[in-house]
Amino acid sequence: MARVKRGVTAHAKHKKVMKAAKGFMGSRKNTIRIAKQAVEKADQYAYRDRKVRKRNFRSLWIQRINAAVREHGLTYGRFIDGLSKAGIELDRKVMSDMAIHEPEAFAKLVDQSKANLSYLKDTTPNAFESAVR
């Protein structure tokens, strides 16, 4: 049986790791053992933070919607409740963009939401609601 020399394969593997470790500091960029660990950890962070980025954006959209809705005398929770009762299904990304770039259209959305909130029609505002207005 012929002898198999593995230098080419090992070199290719090392090259792949070193390319991924480009830009790292100290021995993390040029020592294969440490670079391999650093690249592995970087991949774990990248995987985790792809999920976290989605959370952060949703949070940002909610904050923007809340700020825009409060100008019309509602809170975010009540606004969303009114929209669901009205049967309007818009995602938060679109509503956030509307609140910034198309305030007139967003105001109509808020009006539709208010119209479907029966508990706002019957009662007098409490201390919190009067402070918001």
UniProtKB/TrEMBL annotation:
This is Large ribosomal subunit protein bL20. GO terms for molecular function: rRNA binding; structural constituent of ribosome. Pfam families: Ribosomal_L20. It comes from the Bacteria. Binds directly to 23S ribosomal RNA and is necessary for the in vitro assembly process of the 50S ribosomal subunit. It is not involved in the protein synthesizing functions of that subunit. Keywords: Ribonucleoprotein, Ribosomal protein, RNA-binding, rRNA-binding. It comes from Ahrensia marina. GO terms for biological process: ribosomal large subunit assembly; translation. One of its GO terms (cellular component) is ribosome. InterPro entries: Ribosomal_bL20 (IPR005813), RIBOSOMAL_L20_CS (IPR049946), Ribosomal_protein_bL20_C (IPR035566). The keyword Membrane does not apply. Coiled coil: none annotated. Belongs to the bacterial ribosomal protein bL20 family. HAMAP family: Ribosomal_bL20 (MF_00382).
